[in-house]
């Protein structure tokens, strides 16, 4: 195996949960060229992954026929020995089949599985383990199937040099007027449409509660289209808590370096939460309790003890009602836990 293509061409959070898979594959096959197929909006962060050698940008199923044909041609030219599709759908199955890659592995789901040469039954719909573990199971299958010894990876999965972080912190101090002597708590209220999230009022109560116990600098982060949400949250807390809105950056790599400067990161189940966790920044996450979206299924990549998860009480009709999360109960658990990072 000299060239392997790994496909994870969906959302940022899903892609971040594939990083242990890239680590396992590269550490087990250090001489192999590992290429990731990703959409344009995750390409820049894929370039930060130390276990990815090359990136191919997928124009996605929304692209016209000429663009899709161009992608097939590009993949054919790379002459891959194998492709591992970390999630299966008709688009990915047809793409890899048309590209003529001889070894094609994917989860055994729906009719798409017929176009793969290897299939692994996973039953992901049961959500019995974290998403990153389902991904790792595919890599383990691939390695075993090809008689390759498996090297189990360990986090953190993303890190920056101290001088890079020092430069980024200096830039943030200048941009936001932050106090560099205090811990920095970042809060991301957007969800990217990927999962239900707390209301702005709940986030406001949470920030005020943390501020009452910890002398932090609070940074409200926002991605494209989320600026108004951050501004609204700022309006709710500004009379009681000094906070700064961080809604301008130089792209996803710059945003990621900024997250690496945080002492604590708080968000719903969304891409930035999983980026922060890959950096092993301590995280507090809020998740629905429905089976496909639980804290177990979307468990972050934090090392042990550096993540707290909260969700509404399970029950008919309330699994996705984030209003049922009691912020006072969250603070009772979270404020003493956060003391080790924000004191």
Largest sheet: 6 strands, parallel
What topology, given as strand order, has the largest sheet?
A: 3-2-1-4-5-6
CATH architecture of the largest domain: 3-Layer(aba) Sandwich
Category by helix and strand content: alpha/beta
Estimated share of beta-strand residues: 15-25%
Number of domains: 2
Order of helices and strands: EHHEHEHEHEEHHEHEHEHEHEEH
Count of separate DSSP helical elements: 12
Your description of this structure?
The structure is a single chain. This protein has 343 residues and is of the alpha/beta class. The strands form 2 sheets. The protein has a 6-stranded parallel β-sheet, with helices on both faces. Strands 9-8-7-10-11-12 form a 6-stranded parallel β-sheet, sandwiched between helices. The protein has 2 domains: 143 residues, Glycogen Phosphorylase B (Rossmann fold), CATH 3.40.50.2000; 180 residues, Rossmann fold. The protein is built from 12 helices and 12 strands. Pfam families: Glyco_transf_9 (PF01075). One of its GO terms (cellular component) is cytosol. One of its GO terms (biological process) is lipopolysaccharide core region biosynthetic process.
